[in-house]
Protein 1
Amino acid sequence: SAVISQKPSRDICQRGTSLTIQCQVDSQVTMMFWYRQQPGQSLTLIATANQGSEATYESGFVIDKFPISRPNLTFSTLTVSNMSPEDSSIYLCSVGQSDTEAFFGQGTRLTVV
Amino acid sequence: GEDVEQSLFLSVREGDSSVINCTYTDSSSTYLYWYKQEPGAGLQLLTYIFSNMDMKQDQRLTVLLNKKDKHLSLRIADTQTGDSAIYFCAEKKGYSTLTFGKGTMLLVSP
């Protein structure tokens, strides 16, 4: 299984600021995804991080608010921009190497005050 | 309705078996997954089953799939207090992304 490292593991941020979350995988993976888990809720897909091209966003999520980079097959970043308390969530990176595998990082717990 | 549904809460005694149930609506799902999330942690992949299988066993875990009824269950034998967590069912079609249920909180009492 892939080993996924997310940084930071948690942060407390002031409203109006931005936070960039990093996801590093120990092997090259085909697919990388970013999910959000709001308090007490299930996971919602934000976007698919595409290597070498713009990310594919799900309904309700836009690039200006959640810019994503994927410069290579082992690394991606998600930025939460102009944060408000409603952005307080756990943000999770997920990777898939084949159509069977779906592994998650430990998540980034974000609190916006 | 929701694509993937789970009961929200299950309480068992240590040593008993736990059965967590899940129903899904998309008959074209190719894989179905169970994840475990402990407090403050990410998701740990427990097991997954291909849609053309009926059962998969891995140590204390048994997954049963009834494709006709679109029903998936996870049985944990000899449940321990360390099994207390939220368990998420998820479905997937090919290389597409996962659709999650809302999670079942399992509480194991001594």
Protein 2
Amino acid sequence: KAGVTQTPRYLIKTRGQQVTLSCSPISGHRSVSWYQQTPGQGLQFLFEYFSETQRNKGNFPGRFSGRQFSNSRSEMNVSTLELGDSALYLCASSLGPSGRAGIQETQYFGPGTRLLVL
Amino acid sequence: TQLLEQSPQFLSIQEGENLTVYCNSSSVFSSLQWYRQEPGEGPVLLVTVVTGGEVKKLKRLTFQFGDARKDSSLHITAAQPGDTGLYLCAGLISTQGGSEKLVFGKGTKLTVNP
């Protein structure tokens, strides 16, 4: 079974541009979560999608948005890029949403997209 | 403010030594997970602990969940170079919307020298 795939793996953008990152979950997984990882802040939760609906959102500005398609693939978009948006963006998929009935679904992470904003 | 504090932040040891890394919080978690992340890859789940006081063993790794479900530790016996990586703890907390989300510590970067 193929793992979580993320494209592109590396990206260089300049301030003010916008970027779209893509995540294909493991086949059969319907939940996708996005995280931002930086050396200073560690792994921070961006949002979670399940069945094309956003279930949870972290404390990020509105420049960060996402969506999920009917095939469970997900995209996240960052508009008006800032230098501080440089980070590793990780996507994780699971069978179901987090916290359902008190059960923590196992999340499987992709390799990430490393974004550099100049 | 970091909800989960991990210590130490960096650890460099020789092959064969033992080590313990800690994950502490003032919040109670319904469950806590440990991940290992290697360069260029995403985190990989090692274990989930759910019950206060629970101890789980995975070969040379021993994980413990505090009685009050606020802290956890990871002990590695006879570390090997293959144990090198970033060790992350993550706790499941309730959100205002009634669902739950994972919050991560910043991690402990472990280097095991041959």
Protein 3
Amino acid sequence: GAVVSQHPSWVICKSGTSVKIECRSLDFQATTMFWYRQFPKQSLMLMATSNEGSKATYEQGVEKDKFLINHASLTLSTLTVTSAHPEDSSFYICSARGGGSLHTDTQYFGPGTRLTVL
Amino acid sequence: AQSVTQPDIHITVSEGASLELRCNYSYGATPYLFWYVQSPGQGLQLLLKYFSGDTLVQGIKGFEAEFKRSQSSFNLRKPSVHWSDAAEYFCAVNQGGKLIFGQGTELSVKP
């Protein structure tokens, strides 16, 4: 149980285009989903927290207009990188946390999405 | 604010040898602590977690961790390392529903 998927696993795009990344909880309902960014050989940096049906909460220094997050259902959250530039190239990882007793306070992570902006 | 420190950036052990990865945290109350493992180009997999109760926690893949309040530590151990254990290991503490990660420890396994 507690499986989280991400799609796509990798994407290459041209500078100036927008890219959407999906995060799905496959076998549980995720009341909260998180989006992280990870640079090579570094730890995870939390970008934003999203709760189903409400606006995402962004961490300090993260541009909300650039990284659009939608959490429209209890199993799906999307991250859209708008007008992507080479400096947005990174590994993006989502995680999901359910509201039931088995999953309280535990985040389950997706496999990540490698974004390369040319 | 809480913080998590993993003092060892990189550790190399021989296959079959024992392993201990260190994690120290700073938090006033009893923390919710986690160990995750990340293989190259992959997401994070939960190894084990500590919320309360028995301070020795068993996880998957033969890993265990011991919570020591007096030392503010939550070290990860494995009695016999396998080559497939080579990966990046992250210790994390839950702060208000968000995970605060340590810097990670890269484990290499010598044949």
Protein 4
Amino acid sequence: GQNIDQPTEMTATEGAIVQINCTYQTSGFNGLFWYQQHAGEAPTFLSYNVLDGLEETGRFSSFLSRSDSYGYLLLQELQMKDSASYLCAVRDRADYKLSFGAGTTVTVRA
Amino acid sequence: GAGVSQSPRYKVAKRGQDVALRCDPISGHVSLFWYQQALGQGPEFLTYFQNEAQLDKSGLPSDRFFAERPEGSVSTLKIQRTQQEDSAVYLCASSLNLDAINQPQHFGDGTRLSIL
């Protein structure tokens, strides 16, 4: 099975930077995924890492260290619309299903 | 539309009733997944299909839950004799190809099921 840990809540001001950490314990690993979910809406794919290192996509970057079973999502130049839940998910090697953490609620304040 | 479509968006049923939730994946997507999301939690895997074949149903909570995808496109999740603990958001996701390592899953808005 999978055990995914991420912080419950984070608060930051507009224009600031937030780093959401994610640690995992898995029986198989085939990628770390990040999704954004606004209340009542679908999770939206943000980024993924299969190999170690940093992936940058605009204001969002994601990092993975497989040896540490650790990754993070970095949100830069925060905007009010970035207030949402951010879900860390691990893809299983065997069958490609996603195992999700409970999500980190990010609140951006003016 | 271009995205994953789920219906109904909201469903209220009395305990003991049967419900059916529908998912229209993105056109051409081979893989289809169902997840259950409780309030304040991340989605929990229920089952997945590759085309019409159900390859994994290990996440289905009980034999009251049944999913099908008879023609390899639209899928239906059926819950029989609903219980209050079945109340949750049911999310459907699709991806282009199960074997393609770079294929993320794309989610629908979900069906919010409330059992009274």
